[in-house]
Design goal:
- This protein has 434 residues and is α+β, with helices and mostly antiparallel strands.
- The protein has helices at residues 11-14, 59-67, 110-114, 116-121, 123-126, 130-152, 191-201, 237-258, 260-266, 284-293, 306-313, 368-377, 386-390, 406-414, and strands at 22-34, 38-45, 48-55, 73-82, 90-101, 156-157, 163-164, 176-179, 182-186, 203-211, 224-233, 281-283, 320-323, 336-337, 340-344, 346-351, 356-363, 399-405.
- It has two domains: 3-101, Nucleic acid-binding proteins (OB fold (Dihydrolipoamide Acetyltransferase, E2P), Beta Barrel); 123-422, 2-Layer Sandwich (BirA Bifunctional Protein, domain 2), CATH 3.30.930.10.
- Helix 6 (130-152) crosses helix 9 (260-266).
- The protein starts with 10 loop residues before the first helix and ends in a 20-residue tail after the last helix.
- 37% of the residues are buried.
- The mean pLDDT is 97.
- The structure holds 4-amino-1,4-dioxobutan-2-aminium adenosine-5'-monophosphate and magnesium ion.
- The site of 4-amino-1,4-dioxobutan-2-aminium adenosine-5'-monophosphate has 25 residues, from strand 11, strand 17, strand 18 and helix 14.
Length: 434
């Protein structure tokens, strides 16, 4: 059989078909219930689930349905039956059934599924479940919503290399590897390459993995994550916060418009909250006061850890920006605030209700001497940043940019326990398989 031309409908089409319509479906047996003379199959395909009913009257189909293990791939043909008892009000009464690929006994017992760690050992199989399926589709929606936003706003999509020679976000989290007979690293951020590209395209964005040798075992750190980054010429620190806010609001609207079914599956029947109001902007100094007033032992000049972010963001019901981080907490490329050189023109967008940082951004140093001085003052070697410095000699305008972690956003929007739930095959300090 030529399966590519066999199918004439998907599961979701069946749900709006009239009684008696002939259909040919392809998919997997997600679950089955065997009664004496009837077998109910939940068939999963690219768009979801539909109920098949195989009656013993169709002997060949009935025998196959009885014998086949769940997750066998099948082709099934029959007629649509309108029935209020069926999920979605339709089922398909099967007359013929073909075995496309027979499955062994499914290895995932309730015990395996109960333990999140063993569940991720079987991620290549557990990703087929309805919950993972819906989460992974929302992840798709976050990326497509971002691409939609940036292309509408005139940003050009570029890609940057994965093999690099020097740190963007500090040496502590660099993955080192052998590049033939030299040392190389895995990229932490595409930002520097974007900065080169703004002198030709003005506004650019990337969607690609970044890598962090991040040993901290928190609910928000992966060693490989999907990074959406944008950079724009002639935009200052305030302007780039407007872009970040616009992006997050657009992603939410995009998901509500295009992923209603998945959202309702995951959010007990509701859609995402849309935010009309402007996101609050508080300074780092104000954030420190809020933390100290909540009994947190933190001094001015320290960066926020996972606990501080949780406590701070628990004070908010909408996303909010924290701005003007101290020089000591931010990478060397940040522009110092001309009106207060102890702080930078930087900001983090924080998700509310304990979720914390989802983006980091700010204005970059665009003047050669100022950047050279800051590289030295950070104890870094200017030779490592040769081309990045050189950009400042050839017409680099004031510019700003930011990076957003896709898994962080998905985790927040869907209230997931851990960022690993928001990715297909998570990479953490303890997980490199499957
Ligand atoms: O805050 P980060 O480190 O900022 C940068 O990399 C900048 N160079 C971005 C830029 O301005 N172009 O990372 C940006 C975002 C964070 O806010 C967070 O959402 C996510 O990337 N992120 C991680 N997500 C999961 N696991 C990790 N280990 C992450 N590290 C950063
Ligand atoms: Mg950050």
């Amino acid at each position: 059989m030529k399966w590519s031309s066999y199918r004439n409908a998907y599961s979701r089409d069946v749900l709006s078909m009239e009684d008696g319509k002939p259909v040919k479906l392809l998919g997997w047996i997600a679950s089955k219930r065997v009664h004496k003379d009837k077998i109910f199959i939940s068939l999963r395909d690219r768009f979801g689930y539909v109920q098949l009913v195989v009656s013993s009257h169709y002997e060949d189909a009935f025998d196959k349905a009885k014998r086949l293990n769940i997750e066998s791939a099948i082709a099934a043909e029959g007629f649509v039956k309108v029935d209020d008892r069926a999920p979605g009000g339709r089922e398909v009464h099967i007359t013929k059934l073909y075995v496309v690929s027979e499955a062994d006994v499914w290895p995932l017992t309730k015990e395996v599924l109960k333990n999140p760690d063993t569940m991720f050992d079987y991620r290549h199989l557990t990703m087929r479940g309805p919950r993972s399926r819906a989460i992974l589709l929302i992840r798709e929606g976050v990326v497509l919503g971002a691409i939609d936003y940036f292309t509408r706003e005139g940003y050009v999509y570029i890609t940057a290399p994965t093999f690099i020679t020097a740190a963007v976000e500090g040496g502590a989290t660099l993955f080192k590897l052998k590049y033939f007979d030299r040392d190389a690293y895995l990229t932490q951020s595409s930002q520097f390459y974007e900065e080169a590209a703004i002198c030709v395209f003005e506004k650019v964005f990337v969607v690609q993995p970044s890598f962090r040798a991040e040993k901290s075992r928190t609910r928000k750190h992966l060693t490989e994550f999907l990074h959406i980054e944008a950079e724009a010429a002639f935009l200052d620190h305030e302007d780039i916060m407007d872009v970040e806010e616009g992006l997050v609001k657009h992603i939410i609207t995009y998901l509500n418009e295009n992923y209603e079914r998945e959202l309702k599956t995951l959010l007990k029947g509701s859609l995402l909250q849309e935010y009309e109001e402007r996101f609050p902007r508080i300074t780092y100094d104000e954030a420190i006061s809020i933390l100290q007033n909540n009994g947190v032992d933190i001094e001015w000049g320290e960066d926020f850890g996972a606990d501080e972010e949780r406590i701070l963001s628990n004070q908010f019901e909408t996303p909010f920006f924290v701005t003007h981080f101290p020089v000591s907490t931010r990478s060397f490329y940040h522009m110092n605030d001309p009106s207060n050189p102890n702080v930078t023109l930087s900001s983090d967008l924080m998700a509310p209700q304990g979720y914390g940082e989802i983006t980091s951004g700010g204005q970059r140093i665009h003047k050669y001497d100022e950047l050279m001085e800051k590289i030295k003052s950070f104890g870094l070697d200017p030779a490592d940043y040769g081309w990045y410095l050189e950009l400042r000699k050839y017409g680099m305008p004031p510019h700003s940019g930011f990076g957003l972690g896709v898994e962080r956003v998905v985790r927040w929007l869907l209230h997931l326990p851990h960022v690993r739930d928001a990715t297909l095959f998570p990479r953490t300090p303890s997980r490199l398989y499957p």
